[in-house]
């Protein structure tokens, strides 16, 4: 899934301003100028659209975890994971919103995209594991839709 779509979805879900998105990215350890963010938040067909790079998305997701849960002073800062895959986005959202397996199933069911327990656990496996399964764009899109319904309810 295009990182710009994820950025727009999370921004809408949390009902936050552009300035707050910049603050969240800064929490993740990266400075992004407002002009760049405006380009990332535009739709594909709009003039001035700029693809959101993996590095910005990685810092945004790390910042989102800190924004939602607070900074864990007992752990050293983790290096960013690049490239950012749909599986990584799903993992980071799960951590940020403190979701358990049952919550994940409820969210996907609310989005009318039910997934079995083994399918869901396969998405959180490490790449290279025998049961690893890549997260598709449709699953991530429906997860974001269901999470938005839950957060904005």
UniProtKB/TrEMBL annotation:
PANTHER family membership: CYTOPLASMIC PROTEIN, CYTOPLASMIC PROTEIN-RELATED
Descriptive protein name: DUF1456 family protein
Organism: Pseudomonas tehranensis
């Amino acid at each position: 899934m295009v990182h710009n779509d994820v950025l727009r979805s999370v921004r809408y879900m949390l009902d936050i301003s552009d300035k707050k998105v910049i603050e969240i990215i800064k929490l993740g350890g990266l400075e992004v100028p407002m002009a760049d963010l405006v380009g990332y938040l535009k739709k594909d067909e709009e003039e001035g659209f700029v693809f959101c790079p993996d590095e910005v998305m990685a810092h945004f997701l790390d910042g989102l975890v800190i924004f939602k849960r607070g900074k864990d002073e007992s752990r050293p800062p983790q290096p960013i994971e690049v490239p950012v895959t749909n599986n990584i986005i799903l993992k980071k959202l799960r951590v940020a919103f403190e979701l358990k397996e049952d919550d994940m199933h409820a969210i996907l069911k609310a989005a009318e995209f039910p997934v079995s327990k083994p399918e869901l656990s396969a998405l959180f496996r490490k790449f290279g594991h025998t049961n690893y399964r890549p997260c598709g764009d449709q699953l991530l899109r429906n997860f974001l839709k269901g999470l938005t319904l839950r957060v904005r309810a």
